[in-house]
């Protein structure tokens, strides 16, 4: 029997099951009434972990949620095609397939062999978590203009090996490996 979670105990980044669907809490706000006998309410901003939809919903503090059957496994990226992206579970060595909708724009940071985390709900893959930084090679960028390298604030566009385009400092050259922040999609340093 899965443990029950009171709505008032739900915190940011916590997972819970509501109407047989796993959700992740993005924000929790508790409002306590000033009048006696008023109910304490909990407003949750939550993400449906299956559809990725985000919405707000208000619950009574005493409402209960089931703990979802969620599991996170380490996996390495193999390849993508028209049917989705393929990963190898690092423990069981089975191939896991995520649809293009599940992968979303994370595909911009997937290179062969990269280690990621795959979320499973009731044993089925439902999404992935990228590391905060990934190392990618610069496939195409303009050469530095003489005189621009001294001032650190000058950036230029660079196309990376996965096809994603970001802004990098002017001293970065083609073929160089750089670190990219997967949350902000910004240059994070040389690899």
Automatic annotation (TrEMBL):
Q: Could you identify this protein by its name?
A: Elongation factor P
- Main location class: cytoplasm
Q: What is the lineage of its organism?
A: Bacteria, Pseudomonadati, Acidobacteriota, Terriglobia, Terriglobales
The UniProt family comment states: Belongs to the elongation factor P family.
PANTHER family per the UniProt record, alphabetical? ELONGATION FACTOR P, ELONGATION FACTOR P (EF-P) FAMILY PROTEIN
Localization of this protein: Cytoplasm
Query: InterPro entries given for it?
Result: Elong-fact-P_C, NA-bd_OB-fold, Rib_uL2_dom2, Transl_elong_fac_P/YeiP, Transl_elong_KOW-like, Transl_elong_P/YeiP_cen, Transl_elong_P/YeiP_CS, Transl_elongation_fac_P
Q: Where is the Elongation factor P C-terminal domain?
A: 134-190
Domain (Translation elongation factor P/YeiP central) spans 72-126
Q: In which pathway does it act?
A: Protein biosynthesis; polypeptide chain elongation
Q: Which SUPFAM superfamilies match?
A: Nucleic acid-binding proteins (SSF50249), Translation proteins SH3-like domain (SSF50104)
| Reported function | Involved in peptide bond synthesis. Stimulates efficient translation and peptide-bond synthesis on native or reconstituted 70S ribosomes in vitro. Probably functions indirectly by altering the affinity of the ribosome for aminoacyl-tRNA, thus increasing their reactivity as acceptors for peptidyl transferase.
Q: Name one GO cellular component term.
A: cytosol
One Pfam family, please name it.
Elong-fact-P_C
Q: Name one GO molecular function term.
A: translation elongation factor activity
This protein's UniProt keywords: Cytoplasm, Elongation factor, Protein biosynthesis
Alphabetically, which GO biological process terms does the record hold? peptide biosynthetic process
**Which organism is the protein's source?**
Tunturiibacter psychrotolerans
